[in-house]
Amino acid sequence: MTVTLADLNRMDLAAFEAAVGESFELAPWVAAASHAKRPFATVSDLHAVMMGAVRAAPRDTQLAFLRNHPDLAGKAARAGAITDDSKDEQASAGLDTLSEEEFVRFHRLNDAYKAKFGFPFIVCVRRHTRDSILVQFERRLGHDQATEFAAALQEVFFITRLRIAGKVTGEGMPNVNGRLSTHVLDTHAGRPAIGVAIELYEFTGEKAHYIQSAITNADGRTDQPLIGGRPLPIGRYEVRFAVGDHFRRRGIEAGDPPFLDIVPLRFSVAEPEGHYHVPLLCTPWSYSTYRGS
Amino acid sequence: MTVTLADLNRMDLAAFEAAVGESFELAPWVAAASHAKRPFATVSDLHAVMMGAVRAAPRDTQLAFLRNHPDLAGKAARAGAITDDSKDEQASAGLDTLSEEEFVRFHRLNDAYKAKFGFPFIVCVRRHTRDSILVQFERRLGHDQATEFAAALQEVFFITRLRIAGKVTGEGMPNVNGRLSTHVLDTHAGRPAIGVAIELYEFTGEKAHYIQSAITNADGRTDQPLIGGRPLPIGRYEVRFAVGDHFRRRGIEAGDPPFLDIVPLRFSVAEPEGHYHVPLLCTPWSYSTYRGS
Amino acid sequence: MTVTLADLNRMDLAAFEAAVGESFELAPWVAAASHAKRPFATVSDLHAVMMGAVRAAPRDTQLAFLRNHPDLAGKAARAGAITDDSKDEQASAGLDTLSEEEFVRFHRLNDAYKAKFGFPFIVCVRRHTRDSILVQFERRLGHDQATEFAAALQEVFFITRLRIAGKVTGEGMPNVNGRLSTHVLDTHAGRPAIGVAIELYEFTGEKAHYIQSAITNADGRTDQPLIGGRPLPIGRYEVRFAVGDHFRRRGIEAGDPPFLDIVPLRFSVAEPEGHYHVPLLCTPWSYSTYRGS
Amino acid sequence: MTVTLADLNRMDLAAFEAAVGESFELAPWVAAASHAKRPFATVSDLHAVMMGAVRAAPRDTQLAFLRNHPDLAGKAARAGAITDDSKDEQASAGLDTLSEEEFVRFHRLNDAYKAKFGFPFIVCVRRHTRDSILVQFERRLGHDQATEFAAALQEVFFITRLRIAGKVTGEGMPNVNGRLSTHVLDTHAGRPAIGVAIELYEFTGEKAHYIQSAITNADGRTDQPLIGGRPLPIGRYEVRFAVGDHFRRRGIEAGDPPFLDIVPLRFSVAEPEGHYHVPLLCTPWSYSTYRGS
């Protein structure tokens, strides 16, 4: 259910809270404090005002707010006792399907984190792969209290920016989506490589998990970006191109087995809202790639 | 135990047979027929004469000779009832450590092959990865009798060329060794990348098996070729370069995590006696490779 | 003065001839024969019908038509006694500013050509550089009569396609324009190279003639294609990129003088209606280019 | 006429002076002061001792020594009134064949330089192209006296190092030679490009001066380095590769005219004693180069 910014600007307090109040976890006071600032010129302005309300709150209120967030992959999540938004977000990084061993590991990190900081570990999971969440967890456990308090608020702002962008439509949408795209150029023929099968994988540790497939079109691109319309989760990826099949279809001899068959490009995403263009220029005997634009 | 070509040229029949007779599996008659052709100008000549003796033999003798070869990964191998040469060769492709399932698969292929052709499947295993042996097995099962008889003799000649090259030293050694080398050039700095950790893997199906590691030296090369002094087994390989660590040591910022960390180059070898030079040209944001020389 | 296809479809014969009759050099009968075929669904259809009229004409009429074309860079052109279209076209390849020596060379080739074929040399000059016109001239002098008659008509069709596309607007415009574009990617920084000065040159023999300059924008591209909205003249080109200045602005040390300063990319255009994308990927120590898409 | 270090170590003063005294322009006292330091373990040691003698001399003596150097491209050179070494060196950069205009320009720079510093402009011309000498001239005119006095001595040491390396043979030769090499890899075929015609040019201003030609051998390299056995003059170069002919010989279609015909690589040399390896990786539709090793 989305609402337009125009409608939102006309709502009374109750309707406004019903529409966007849940964006800030169990903190309807954020929406309440923001209602008076209507009308908002842009959706980004709306989110900025709501962030301002959090920043302006007393420290105790902020702390209580952070404490109201559920544990990542915690028992509340398992028991279904968290908001729907939280549930969907945790599912996005596969935190709802952890093995028993992984569950125990998250649980231990959570306990250590809460013991040190007094509030649960908060991270905008849609902006991270499962691997990256663990990297963040361990890195942030090393922070001092002030640094981590700021880091937790920043994550809340990432989370709520995504929630607002999902609930409200209108002018000036916040920039929450990244894009992963590719392009295959056959520099042996001097034209785009058409019909090349592509697979995208995400790494968890040393394991590559299949995400999706695509086929290059007449321009050597995929009809849809490999990832688009959402943040690119921070993490490590591999895109595999079936160039051996491509050159075989063209009737090119390149050894038996051919020198190049499946070409993997392995790279990391560090900017979830960025554009990662990772093209492949190839012949049966050479290839190159780069972060393009 | 090696012997010089000069010494071999002076040997009487008994000594000659003792020296090189076993090269042709259970066929001392090949050495016997070749003895009279001494002296040999080169080691290649010696092998050519021995191959000539096989080619000149009646078809029945040739068939009996092929039949004397052990099954690949067969029961004789498991029981130790084959020549030492055969034992070492089968170990080179890991055929001595098959799982029960793999053993059964080889066994079945062997049975089907012998039923069709009347002699065991012969392949110069030192020139193949385990994967490639299975590809060969299935491909050759589709041959007609004449084609496969010739193919089997050709494999015998590959096997014996390697055995002779291992036993006899002197002028005109046959070309039995391939070479896999690499070179890492840091095109961000315009100089060789020093101290880059490299790992070589061989593929069996979708699984990458670790073979060995190396570190680039001051010239961006490895002190020893990744594979050298032996045939390059036909098959699929991956060389992985720790370029993320390299640029981190140079203090270059390239995202967190860095855009490139472990760069895998995946390629196939089709010419066991060839030189495969597979360099990596890289910056923190791009890389390229090619079959070089 | 352009006319819309809709208006053209409604015109009587006189208006129709006035509008498009001159497209076929001194041959109003082509328009006259085409008028009855109205309405034309597309501008390409209009041109196809006019070409059909030429093809359907008796050989004598066709020959007379070819003979009515002016000499390339001939005396008629110098004296101004040719159609405006012809005048503009000849100027596009610099044929109106030949040196005395070049004028004599063209004159001689023209004489030889007319002596052999009985009609003047016709070429669609907007599709060629001056260099390419001379190559065509000499190549076509070697043709037999039938081949060259067909070649001359084909050139007439190229010429008239451009003229029609310049006079008539509407649905289904013929594809007469090519595009030359570039893109500079700084693979040292992993982003587009902004503010790089680019110069485009065209070759006549060994001499590079300056055509125009551009500067890369925030996306590493030029705001306008280097050539666009017209055919790309067949010929040899060089695009020069001031990458030394770019890296100097970024504060990168790359030798004194820097290893790369002006990087020239030299290539030829063979398809005047094609898209030539010629990007530069560069670091201070390396670069690459390719025909992209 | 060269002498061995061993012989030199045994010479009396007169012979020693005759052998190496002229290396330091009109300054036999340098050799005289060095004679007592025999034996020299290496040729580099000999030169180090001679440099030490200059450094140890009183400032007045040093100044007189600098003043004894001939003007670059000066009247003395034209009149033949300079040492043979100086004459050969000036010829190496073409300073003996200046146009009248260039002669005047050098003359003026010389006058300005001498007016400011009190000694003639000294530069090791073998380490520079004519272009680079002019760059040095103007840059050094901006120096203060102390900086330029040191710079002049440094140039003397470069000059004498080359002279000593040319006169004396033996252990520990000073490193005076650079190397410019190339390699052409046909990544369309996956092997070295054989028989590719290569031309080397040096730039003076915007003009490219032809230096020499070579043809790639079976390994895609030139039998001799493009420049070797001498310093690489600092300056700008272009190497041109006739790749269009190469692909035409291979029967590859790549447009008419072919997309790539003559490929120019333009780069600068900044380290006269360095190794510049400038390879070309190419297909009919793409190429790349880099400073290799």
Give an overview in words:
Helices cover 41% and strands 21% of the residues of chain A. Chain A is α/β, with parallel strands linked by helices. In chain A, the strands form 4 sheets. A 4-stranded mixed sheet of chain A has the order 5-4-12-13, with no helix packed on it. In chain A, a hairpin with a 2-residue loop joins strand 12 (280-283) and strand 13. The two termini of chain A are 34 Å apart. Chains in contact: A-B, A-C, A-D, B-C, B-D, C-D. Strand 13 of chain A pairs antiparallel with strand 13 of chain B.
In order across it, which strands form the biggest sheet of chain A?
5-4-12-13
Instruction: Please count the beta strands of chain A (DSSP E, at least 2 residues each).
Output: 13
Approximate shape of chain A: globular
Percent strand of chain A: 15-25%
The helix/strand class of chain A is alpha/beta
- Which range best describes the helical content of chain A: under 10%, 10-25%, 25-40%, 40-55%, 55-70% or over 70%? 40-55%
Radius of gyration of chain A: 23 Å
Quaternary assembly: homotetramer
Order of helices and strands of chain A: EHHHHHHHHHHEEEEEEEEHEEEE
Distance between the termini of chain A: 34 Å
Largest interface, Cβ cutoff 8 Å: A-B, 29 and 28 residues
What are the low-pLDDT stretches of chain A, counting only 5+ consecutive residues below 50?
Answer: none
Instruction: Name the average pLDDT of chain A.
Output: 93
Total number of helices of chain A = 11
